[in-house]
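Example 3.
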Amino acid sequence: MSTTPGFGDRLARAVAARESQVVLGLDPDPARIGEGAAGASEFCTRVIMAAAPACVAVKPQLAWFERLGSAGWDALERVATLAAELGLLVIADAKRGDVAVTSGAYADALLRAPFDAVTVNPLLGTDAVTPFVTAARATGRGLFVLVRTSNPGAGDLQDLRLADGSPWYESVARLVAAWGAAGVGSSGMSDVGAVVGATAPHHLAVLRELMPHQPFLIPGVGAQGGRPEDLGAAFAGTRAAAVVAASRSILYAADPRVAAEALRAQLWDVSG
Amino acid sequence: MSTTPGFGDRLARAVAARESQVVLGLDPDPARIGEGAAGASEFCTRVIMAAAPACVAVKPQLAWFERLGSAGWDALERVATLAAELGLLVIADAKRGDVAVTSGAYADALLRAPFDAVTVNPLLGTDAVTPFVTAARATGRGLFVLVRTSNPGAGDLQDLRLADGSPWYESVARLVAAWGAAGVGSSGMSDVGAVVGATAPHHLAVLRELMPHQPFLIPGVGAQGGRPEDLGAAFAGTRAAAVVAASRSILYAADPRVAAEALRAQLWDVSG
């Protein structure tokens, strides 16, 4: 038996220790900061150094690094390593998902130091997600599986009504709960979490009911319009039941430290 | 007005010129060929040189390169460039899909030389796919959007029945047809295609009807169990209406050239 604590417990411990549910999204957009891997790395370093005290994790969005080729990959590695050294969890926002053998290769790529968790796209079903679960669980790492996203077109396919009247994404939620069932730690939180957007908060209560042990990763606060005060149902009184990602509203704030601390205080309030 | 031919027409021209619908899947698995970027690059180079005469395209599976970090990214670039120099189209099998601004960053990363097309995951809906369509169309490149995949768990979510009795993936198909409507070339083929697995051939006829202008990218032949002789409905008599990806059955064949040529001849027969 491994004595590595599971990711759900690691997340719960980190939230308690840092008194924060803020996930700093790292989306270094060249339209804002100029082109190049060196610039992206410097920009992320500066924001991480400023905002870290108010955060529990960083969430690098892989697209912004991938578009810089191999230099971008090195920059991602540097930035993630810095965050880990500062005591932050690192969630690779990759949204990968493929046939089983390929998901295994993605798990190799992304479920390793300095990454603690990865976002996963569930479209291909159980055999496509299982390699991520296995790789994560073996090393105390975690997943956040897309259940209901925060973008304007999220409903085009995710909200389609099934024969029984339920929206399609609730079927995803049931699968996610099943995938995470064997990974629930002593904190009550599983190593398989769910991505649930902040922009449709009326979904949160039913999703919390369908996935009682899943930590939620909630994007869409700030620039996308989601409001911290609407997220109470995601926590249901458990501090570590959800972490909330903000990117542009912290990255490009006049003072990232102040913006992150304001969000931290709001969320701590809502979750108690 | 741009005079760049659209991807649908480029694909149709390539299929006619090479008399092939074979897409060589490049999945350099370290369990088969040993670990490291140099080995992956050499392996892919050797197979491409051998099989190219029987193929119309290569499809590097990004996971296998991504797991090698920045050296893997460079290896991918080299391998794709070689294939392009040999006159093959290059389809980046990335299955990316994210909120609009992030999809734009992925499009930057993958819709550029040496890549001619990219596979896209539609889960996040129209605003998430639009940046890929725009970027592809502007440069004569293309997309293949996941509609019904070839893996055992494909049905877990894709086949769920909607209120009207239709499977969920048919709604994806309708969206894909809409996304591709403005990109149909003189060949009748659009720059927005569809990934449709070979392992459930009874889906092909209805999907061909729902997506009359979409080139199909069909994985799942060979190692996954799909059979070329079952794919007639995908072509519906049009040679360039589908291209068929085979990876392990060519890569690890005793003679990749012979394996690719056998598949080429079978498909040419079925599609006529």
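The CA atoms of residues 237 and 272 of chain B lie 6 Å apart. The longest strand of chain B covers residues 89-96.
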